[in-house]
Amino acid sequence: MIYTVKMQADRTQQWVDIYGPSKELSLLSPKVKVELNSAGSFTFVLPPNHTYYSLPKILLTNVAVWEENTLIFFGRVSEIEVDFYKQKTIHAEGALAFLNDTIQRPAEWEVTSVRTFVNYILAQHNNQVPSDRRIQLHHVDDNIGNKTVYRKLDYETTFDALKKMCLEAEGGYLFINVAIDSSTGESTLTMDWLEGLETSGNEPIQYAVNLVDLKQTYGIEDLYTAVIPLGKEIDGVKLTIASVNSGLDYLLAPQSVINEFGTIYHVENFNDIDNATTLKTEGQAWLSRQNFDSFAVEVSAAELHFINSDYNAWKIGQNIRVLSSPHLIDKTLPLTKLDIDLSKAVKQVTVGTKKKETLTEIYKDKTKEYVK
Which terminus, N or C, of the chain has the lesser number of Cβ atoms within 10 Å? Predict the structure, then answer.
């Protein structure tokens, strides 16, 4: 079989295979969903005659899914539903959800590096959970990790702290890496935080080759053409950029973009900045960074690597080329979401929506590619 599904009852036991060709190991509707900066999920139905029907326990049981030799999902059972016919629908959440279990007690840093802050909150998380729920920081790109910031914690969950004070504040993409010891069954989790998506897959999605179905989405999400950056509060008043910006407390996108979309204001707080020039620089960076090209392609496609080993399997975060002459598409876009039905050879793939571009680039693309 292409897919392997294993379960570990209570973290201390060995992993057992729960998916196979026999009736006693059959799973109904086994589906994996993975997405950028999301925990992901795995759902399946256990028939009453399944060998391990009684094994799953909420929050205690770990579940892992492999595609050939590649681990594509690791998480824990989060919900169990039993229907009239005693079939159990098992819902599992990905490892990133482990960070919802712990609380960050009050702490404050006037100046700290992002890397130091992330290491701190992960250490606090690790002090509150058993070994298989601990996550160590493996890598953070220097442009993010070396940045100095102000941070304050006040009883947030670790997940909320990571989301709001790291991802939403600095951008980038989180990846959880899992290593499972084959002899002991123990799992080790590490985290990578990347500024951009630079890995390219060599397997395209191509019309008349492996493309089965396609849906396109056009538009601009969260489009702001003007930003009012606010800095640290000094003597009860928040710092603005007016003193270094000709008396104006706001920044505008290029005039061509204003002409197209109008002026749409947004207030962004930079609570750790007490210098107007630095605040203006950060405001300019935010204005270009926070606007997205929301062109997306959602496709059903068959993976060529199952029949041709020269191709690599699709992975979240890869840049994938999509070619379809009838739909006037030839773009390389990041793979942001992957829906896999383990019982079928076709995958639902979403590419696009997360690719960050400046407003000027969005305007150019909208003119030359999106308007057909």
Answer: C
CA distance 17 to 185: 13
Rounded CA gap, 149 and 139, in Å?
19
pLDDT value for 362: 28
What's the rounded Cα separation, in Å, for the pair 58 and 94? 14
Quick check: 175 and 284 in contact, CB under 8 A?
no
3-state DSSP assignment of residue 163 = helix
List Cα–Cα distances, 292 to 133, 224, 257, in angstroms.
34, 10, 13
- Alpha-carbon distance 321 to 48, whole Å? 43
Confidence category of residue 285, pLDDT binned at 50, 70, 90: confident
Helix (H) or strand (E) holding 169: helix 168-170
Which amino acid is residue 4, in one-letter code? T
List the 251-252 sheet strands across, edge first. 251-252, 226-230, 265-269
Sign of CA dihedral 208, 209, 213, 219: negative
| Contacts (Cβ under 8 Å, ≥6 apart) of 168 | none
Higher per-residue pLDDT: 115 or 352: 115
Return the pLDDT at 57.
93
H or E stretch at 365: helix 359-365
State the pLDDT confidence band at 326, using cuts at 50, 70 and 90.
low
Backbone angles phi, psi at 286, to 5 degrees: -65, -40
Per-residue pLDDT at 153: 95
Alpha-carbon Rg for the chain, nearest whole angstrom, is: 23
CA distance linking residue 195 with residue 114, whole number of Å: 13
DSSP 304: G
Write the CA distances from 125 to 12, 49, 76, 137, 324, integer angstroms. 20, 39, 17, 12, 46
Q: What sign results for the dihedral spanned by CA atoms 366, 168, 112, 268?
A: positive
The pTM of this model reads 0.73
pLDDT at 309 over 90: no
